[in-house]
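Please review the protein record below. Tell me whether the encoded fold seems credible here:
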Amino acid sequence: MTANWQKVIIPPTASIREALEVIDKEALRVAVVVLGCDTLVGVVTDGDIRRGILKGIELSAPVSTIMNKEPTSANVALSSCELMAIMQDCKILSLPLVDDEGKLVGLKTLYDTLEVEKRQNPVFIMAGGFGTRLRPLTDNCPKPMLKVGGKPMLETLINNFKSHGFYKFYISTHYLPEVIENYFGDGSALGIEITYVYEKEPLGTGGALSLLPKSLPKEPLIMINGDILTNVDFGKVLDFHVKQLSDATMCVRDYEIKVPFGVIEGEGHEITDIVEKPTYRYFVNAGIYVISNNIIKSLPSNEHLDMPTLFEQKQRLGHKVLKFPIHEYWLDVGRHDDFNKAQTDIHELGI
């Protein structure tokens, strides 16, 4: 039984945002919704939250609007093998445990008991930027090699990928490439494989894809900026891409803009509506992508191309391009304020 299962219990009146905080903080990938002290009424996974976000449900809404109201549960008296069989049959990662009276008494998870499956998919990390906004910290150090929590951000990112079974890495370098190469070498010390791709001139995120070797594995590739601190489950992103038969998938984040004034709507001099202090929500690019091999092969060599332009081009040509909303912790460490925030946040992320 999971030792800290009580920490993922929330009431049905809790907001979706509160459920999200519980899921991210406790790393059990589920929040258990309980009425009173011990009556199980639902469970919430990150998938439930993701689907709610796509439907436009506000994070301030009660968790009861998105929870699974008929969760699978099992009697606590069952053996571990029996509980594991239930989870495998139902394809779930966690199982609430109840006593003979149906009261919640625990939680069993499958995630930590299963061996992490090795994935052949390549991971391409962009680590060639100058980090101009972080000077003087980057005067003699590439931005992804700046230490957060006593370890280079790039190493933390690689370790997160490793925890999800990825071991084939390609790292794009340009500014001070020797600092990165001397630190990681061929990756064998970390139990991974690293191939370096040197950009003589910055080609943009999309253009750098054309520099990858022809021996690149045919499986879809995950691409990410090397200055991102996140605990995203990259396996889930990849599984979505494959299941949806996507050619290119962009991870996006829900971004809110709150206008502190009344917004006046109308045409010409006529006022048709007054919206008091509205909140507008948008999906923004999170700098994480899954790209299928056919897209990579189609790119011209050594031509500058940014990733949004690549997505626009392929969409016009009829390729399937999708968005995948992420709700997990995410921070683009581009400024000094971000760097200072990362130093605090890293201790709570468990990565």
Remarks:
- The chain has ten helices and 19 strands.
